[in-house]
Amino acid sequence: xxxxxxxxxxxxxxxxxxxxxxxxxxxxxxxxxxxxxxxxxxxxxxxxxxxxxxxxxxxxxxxxxxxxxxxxxxxxxxxxxxxxxxxxxxxxxxxxxxxxxxxxxxxxxxxxxxxxxxxxxxxxxxxxxxxxxxxxxxxxxxxxxxxxxxxxxxxxxxxxxxxxxxxxxxxxxxxxxxxxxxxxxxxxxxxxxxxxxxxxxxxxxxxxxxxxxxxxxxxxxxxxxxxxxxxxxxxxxxxxxxxxxxxxxxxxxxxxxxxxxxxxxxxxxxxxxxxxxxxxxxxxxxxxxxxxxxxxxxxxxxxxxxxxxxxxxxxxxxxxxxxxxxxxxxxxxxxxxxxxxxxxxxxxxxxxxxxxxxxxxxxxxxxxxxxxxxxxxxxxxxxxxxxxxxxxxxxxxxxxxxxxxxxxxxxxxxxxxxxxxxxxxxxxxxxxxxxxxxxxxxxxxxxxxxxxx
Length: 453
Prior knowledge:
Elements: H1 11-30, H2 44-55, H3 65-68, H4 71-86, H5 88-98, H6 105-115, H7 123-153, H8 156-169, H9 189-204, H10 206-221, H11 232-256, H12 268-281, H13 297-309, H14 322-336, E1 343-344, E2 347-348, H15 351-378, H16 383-394, H17 409-424, H18 426-433
Antiparallel strand pairs: 1-2
Helix pairs in contact: 1-2, 1-4, 1-6, 2-4, 2-17, 4-8, 5-7, 7-8, 7-9, 8-9, 9-12, 10-11, 11-12, 11-13, 13-16, 14-15, 15-16, 15-17, 16-17
């Protein structure tokens, strides 16, 4: 008898494959005539692009979301965004828990890899908290949106509010209002504040959520200093998020203050609100209240940097992550000061964390350079617009300088691959491609000094 072919996939390969299968399933549904607003099937390339940008919670679109897709198509997109934001593994684990199915060791390992956790214990409780927390925050966001959208759109405003809330929390940046994102609401405090809160809460990471909640519980019981009792991870994530948002707001405010194509005619409070939103949305959200192609070169470069960094680990945001950039900066200063170890908040950063941070940034930079070079070869566009597009795709942001809708076939394929690689992560890609098995007796090569820098 012939032995059955057994494919033994690693947890990382399983996660990557699950995203790919979800994309293909979504593209099949979106390519159906019932998904189109006019009843005629959308070209498969655009359906594949939309499914990819939804699952990867990016937000770049080749066709307008609000006018191209029927209600069925929009529902498919919303489900894809939710699956992409939470992760296929999280959704499947949630279904297993609801059906009272046992979560085995392999499933726990999948969850551990999906959320980059350090332990296998408490996985069922963690998944429940993630799902409950997500739906509660999205529900509150939808209610806030309804105060504006229901009076404006009537009953349809309920659906628009739900769609926007899920899209904002998952950092997808897709909407079903108009072709111009949130341009019409640049001065609306409720839309701006609700969107920014959802973006930040989704991008800050679930670990920070639980850490903050635990600290607040202890504070109620006895007097404690909130920040000092947080874990190192939460301290870094919260600090870097605050610094990047404030620095980005100040930079955009200064560089766009006299720009007649963006904010010159705004009042000072309106300029501050628009600048704050631009700083927050570049943290991989993709909504826009001012045209990105009209930004000054200085603001565009600031936005590129913010997009590249992205949000925090174990959240819905993309990018290299706030914790990664913080570790690199601290490590660089430690090296310049000839310190043996990098320290942050009176804690030593492990060598493994530093090495992983270097690997993440290096691989992200390689993906970006390759994508930018290839897109430049097939697209006749401005270099800044191309860089904006590839960084936005790789960091799963969704902001564009009006280039996405003008991409040719090869351009769309390049951005599709870039979005996918950005969503699964550069390190996951390398682990998935590594087929070498560990050996017990490893012979180390001799060490030789080299000159660096």
